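Tokens for SPT20 protein. Go.
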Amino acid sequence: PSVPRHTNRLINEKSPYLLQHAHNPVDWYPWGQEAFDKAKRENKLIFLSVGYSTCHWCHVMEEESFKSKEIGDIMNEHFVCIKVDREERPDVDKVYMTFVQATSGGGGWPMSVWLTPDLKPFAGGTYFPPEDGVHRVGFRTVLLRIAEQWKENKDALLESSKRILEALRHTSEICVQGQETSPPPKEVMDTCFQQLSRSYDADYGGFSKSPKFPTPVNLNFLFTYWALHRTTPEGAQALQMALHTLKMMAHGGIHDHIGQGFHRYSTDQHWHVPHFEKMLYDQGQLAAMYSRAFQISGDEFFADVVRDILLYVSRDLSDHAGGFYSAEDADSYPTSTSGEKREGAFCVWTAEELRALLPDPVEGATEGTTLGDVFMHHYGVEEAGNVDPMKDPHQELKGKNVLIARCSPELTAARFGLEPGRLSALLQECRQRLSTARAQRPRPHLDTKMLAAWNGLMISGFAQAGAALAEQGYVSRAAQAAAFLRTHLFNSDSGRLLRSCYRGKDNSVEQSAVPIQGFLEDYVFVIQALFDLYEASLEQGWLEWALHLQHMQDKLFWDPKGFAYFSTEAGDPSLLLRLKDDQDGAEPTPNSVTVTNLLRAALYSGHMDWVEKAGQILAAFSERLQKIPITLPEMARATALFHHTLKQIVICGDPQGEDTKEMLRCVHSVFSPNKVLMVADGDSAGFLYRQLPFLASLERKDGKATAYVCSNFTCSLPVTSVQELRGMLSP
């Protein structure tokens, strides 16, 4: 590679996104005191650009504007320019995204915001083209106009930024109103179910026409709604909606049929043409959802999808030390000699390529049939490409095919006169060949940043899959990742989590010079992961760490006046607002998951003040939960669990004994959202016995593994048969 003409101070950062901009002619600063001091000293406005390394439009804006010497000169002359990786600093992103959404009615990345030297926003947007067009003002024009305004109308700008901040502070406040209590669960659950039903696409699954996102939070709500209403028509409908959505996604092009795992979202109604980036948080949550679908339905189809996701993550997103990387990009070079990257280039195929790779005649099929014929029919391949030009504005996919399972295996087998079992083996052979061919292509960029929160979601995915599919290897992988977190993303001296670490040279794990402290979401998703991992592995050390982190979360983030948890700690002068997220999106909002975490923590520790805190969170969000619960499906689900009798399933027995294992398999095979599982192994000095003295009174019956179902620390009669236990597990 040629020696870069420019290098700015981002070269000293660890974030892959910041490093992508280290050779721009823009004099970028990372978010921090050096940049703030310069803006004040030189009385300059700040231009803040926020994005992430796998963001397609971030790449476009960099190519068009940030690599331009002319635009770089304008930026450097008039502004102090700051670059932020939103995945490293969700706190900074959230404050200014709240502003952009409030003032422009939309949001997204790259986010472009202009701030006064004291960090108050006054103008903002997302992507800007470099030059003026018919319908849009160009970036160069915006820069020059804002610089001119600062020169001519500084006082008016400062006054306006002050007013904007006050308004934001007022509208973004979430706190308990008067004597409000947690909202009525039946009303919240029923309203949420009705709102989801209205937005549900009965043909293709999912909850919008297009674009279509996986939204695991909606599926998790529907599974819980079914579990609590299984004998009603609404319960059956909820289950059907969730299972149909998961099936259609797995058949669609959003699912990578050759390289496994799921892309970010579909640009169309049919789950066909995706935005091709792959995010760790999607893989973790979808592994958990497909595991639940298998638990509930017993259909091996869902178990196969779980294995597919976890194969992808183990192979492509795993660090050798045990952590999980953040994401893979959508864009890549079509060939090793290509000059520019294209979206989806790594994943798409021409009909001609497929024919050349799959020329073999198929024995026993209709005469003249080749492997290519069978594969192309099954996966909807067309000679001229199968991508609707309307979904391909830049013509990057012209003539290409995004694989989508268009037929059932039975129909494809019948079409070519094959047995279904034989067809399955043939398709597997085809996919293997294409995988080998694809490995010769240049790979998309890999973001090797490792985030505590997203690692937490992925640990939950592995742990829940290990329990539901009875695959010990998945539980071991979850434990390896949890040990990685404890080594690299936890400070044992302070007892606090860190946000991020990075793959360094020679595959070492590196930390920034000033490590970023964990945010609320890091604590919440790691605590959830540790509870899931305890239930799958029964290693009490994970439980002990989870309860320690819950105490720390309370100390750092709890709002004693308005209730619920702030997303960030107090005391950072560079953060103008201390916010509470109020919407479950691609990931659930931390307060939603925390309600369930607190209930689990109380049942494992006997600290009932955690139940009270859970109720106070629901009270703080009460108005939203009653009016538009579809924006908080994970919290709506938690509302039902809060008011439902929670069960402690206690199994007394030797964890290595076959009779104990059989009972554990029974518990793991049933989806029961309102239970926690624990094994009382007779070690009275153990952590659980110290937390829950009532365990000492439970014993084995007739020397066999014995189960007790306890609520409010009062236990049922002992049960030694798996059939009886199964009957007691339903909500």
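The chain has four domains: 10-172, 209-331+447-644, 347-440, 648-729.
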